[in-house]
Amino acid sequence: MRRRKAAATSSTPTMSRRGPACLRPSMFVRMFSATTHRPAINKICSSTSEAIAGVKSGDTLLVGGFGFSGVPSTLINSIRDRKDLGEFTVVSNNAGMPGVGLGQLLQTGQIRRMIASYVGENKLFESQYLTGKLQLELIPQGTMAEKCAAGAAGVPAFYTPAAVGTVVQAGELPVQYNPDGTVAVMSKPRETRDFNGKTYVMEESIFGDVALVKVNKVDRLGNCTFRKAQNNFNEAMAKNAKITIVEADEIVQVGEIAPENVHLPGIYVDRVILSTEPKQIEKLTLAKSAEEIVNSGTYAGSQSRKRERIIKRAAQELKDGMYVNLGIGIPLATPALLPPGVEVILQSENGILGMGRYPEKGQEDPDLINPGKETITLQEGASIFGSHESFGMIRAGKINVTMLGALQVSMDGDLANFMLPGKVKGIGGAMDLVANPEKTKVIVTMEHVDRKGNPKILKKCTFPLTGQRCVSKIITDIAVFDCTPAGLVLRELVPDVSVEQLESMTEAPFAIADDFRPYQV
Ligand SMILES: *[C@@H]1O[C@H](CO)[C@@H](O)[C@H](O)[C@H]1NC(C)=O
Ligand SMILES: *[C@@H]1O[C@H](CO)[C@@H](O)[C@H](O)[C@H]1NC(C)=O
Description:
Helix content: 10-25%
Strand order of the largest sheet: 17-16-15-14-18-21-23-24-25-26
Largest sheet: 10 strands, mixed
Number of helices: 15
Distance between the termini: 73 Å
Bound molecules: 2-acetamido-2-deoxy-beta-D-glucopyranose
């Protein structure tokens, strides 16, 4: 027993024979012991360079964070400053922005391959990928979270309902381009298997070499807590690496975190440093009146009236007592129009149940953002958890309604909303959100035709699918349709458009409901 303890303090895997300085006895005696008794475990390192010792070129780095929230910026910067290190595979939901977070490691060329769900507005990420300088494995956000969580649990692969019948499953996403723009490497097709009459996609877990993790509080034993929505991918990643390096807002004494409040037990954590980089806010969004939310300033004239009409109609789908997940844009504007007394709990896929309104000036918090990276608040009674758990409740069908925008919907209820041909934006969480339509009703809100006047409700989608046979209702600026197993059924139509005119704007055939009525706003 005694010998084992001594061995554990004098060497750690992957380090020199003496072990990292942070595990040498002299330091922690000074820092934490008032008595001569020497604590056996002290994971606190005295410098970032010490904390990242042992990180090797070619390693798979799991990097926590969603948008700018919960990003281990101090550790990322210390990797950036080690110009001798590179060729990394980085697993992270997104890759910061140019000059911020992981965006810097793209600039320095230290990343060879990204495994991510979202490229988004990061132009550097997009251009490096499209010119063949960077490999990209684009995967659904919930799949990414589960690949880390399952790996952490020692499970090498799992079946998920997300992405069945999509390019993710078919292996039709370019991983690497040639400099001339042709595809050099395609993604791997996934095996599928049916369970209880439903098809699932097999995904292999990710196993990290190193996890870079952001937490709020940590003690010398490595027990951690997260603050607000800081957890996101941090917890699942922290549990899933050979070396887990934590940076914390605050280092506290052992005992300060009550056992039942430990979010990440110390057994998963190898090294600890204090964060020195300030937290940043990507999209400061402050409280608005319902009117301001509905009449978003970025839309003018008829565009704005269409938007307002869809929001007003869609808001009627939110019923008292529902748990809902709302996409960015029109769906997220609908709660502003809820009648008083209607209680709807908003779920946010970055790990929030009970998301509140935008903050008043001065109340904004970098650790509290929505999936659109905007600052938000929490409702009384809210709860917070990691992205792996968030997507667990989504795929398991605990959410009553998910509302999202679309590029195209087919007469069978297929949804295409994540990718225009030739544009890389990312998948995000949508494939998971529509993966259990038997339990979670999928409502699409969109303009009836595209900017060129082309129908968006089609016999068959031409853009890559987000999900198959998943949509149950379509709300456009002129009509409301139900998607039924027998096809589309028109339920409502604005009075100034005739059924014949609607047919000319709708490629898919549709029946008219017995209780057909004027568009309700
Ligand atoms: C903190 O972590 C250590 C080591 O993993 C563990 O023995 C201890 O019980 C933990 N403390 C709390 C409060 O959970
Ligand atoms: C929401 O879903 C749960 C089950 O997942 C169900 O028990 C509940 O009745 C639903 N609530 C509403 C308002 O539809």
